[in-house]
Amino acid sequence: MNLLLYRVLWGLGVTSWERMQAFGAEQVSAMFDHEEQGRQPPYGAALDLGFGTGFWSVNLAERGWDVTGVEIVPKALRAARERAHKAGVEVRFLDGSVAALREPRVGSGFLLALDFGTVHGLSPGELKAVAREVSAVTTDASPSFQTI
Ligand SMILES: C[S@@+](CC[C@H](N)C(=O)[O-])C[C@H]1O[C@@H](n2cnc3c(N)ncnc32)[C@H](O)[C@@H]1O
User: Fold this and answer.
1) Cα–Cα distance measured from residue 54 to residue 91, given in angstroms and rounded to the nearest whole number
2) Which domains does the chain have, with CATH numbers?
3) Is the beta carbon of 133 within 6 A of some atom in ligand 1?
4) CA gap 137, 106 in Å, rounded
5) Half-sphere exposure of 125 toward its Cβ, with a 13 Å CA cutoff?
6) How confident is the model at residue 51, as a pLDDT?
7) Is the pLDDT of residue 142 over 60?
C-alpha cells in the first residue's frame, strides 16, 4: 500500500489492518518468547517499523523491551502515544520513514526489529533501503528481523 493511501486511510480514521493483530498474536508472541528465552528483562533495544497505533510497540515495552518506533503518518503518532500513556509504558515514538533509519535520534544497536504489515507495502526501491537501514541499525550479534 503506498504512502498516499495510508495518509488517506489515517485521515479517514480507517485502520482496518488492526484486525490482523488478533490473527497474528499467537505467532508474534511466540517470536517474542523465542527472542526472550533464557533471559531476564530488560531485553534490550527493539525497533517497530511502521507502528500504526502502537499495538506491538506497547506490547514489547510491557514485556520489558526498550522500544523505539518509526512511523510516517503524524496521526498514528498521536494514537500510539495515547496507547502507551494508557498502558503506563515508555516508548520512543518517532516520525520518519523506515527507509531512512540512520539518524542519530533513531539510534542503533537494536536486537530486534519488528515489521507487522508495513514493509511488504513498500516499493522495490524502498524495500532495498529498508534492508540496508535495518542492517545498519541492528547489532551484529544475531539481529532478529521479524517481518509479518
Ligand atoms: C498495515 S499498517 C501496520 C501498523 C502496525 N504495524 C500494526 O501492526 O498495527 C502499516 C503502517 O506503516 C506506516 N507506514 C507506511 N509506510 C511507511 C514508511 N515508509 N515509514 C514509516 N511508516 C510507514 C503506515 O502509516 C501504517 O501505519
Assistant:
1) 9
2) 3-147 (3.40.50.150)
3) no
4) 8
5) 1
6) 98
7) no
Indicate the pTM of the whole model.
Answer: 0.94
| Chain-centroid distance, C-alpha 15 | 16
Residue 71 grid cell: 512511523
Q: Name the H helices within the chain.
A: 3-12, 19-36, 55-63, 74-87, 124-137
Nearest protein Cα to ligand 1, atom 4? 52
**C-alpha span between 142 and 137 (Å, rounded):** 13
Pocket test for ligand 1, best of 1, 2, 4, 6 (most atoms within 8 A of CB): 6
- Rg of the chain, C-alpha, whole Å: 14
| 3-class secondary-structure state, position 114 | strand
Looking at the predicted structure, is the pLDDT value of residue 146 above 70? no
Q: Name the 3-class secondary structure at 33.
A: helix
d(CA 76, CA 11): 10
Question: In the block, which residue shows the cell 495510508?
Answer: 6
Q: Are 82 and 147 in contact (CB under 8 A)?
A: no
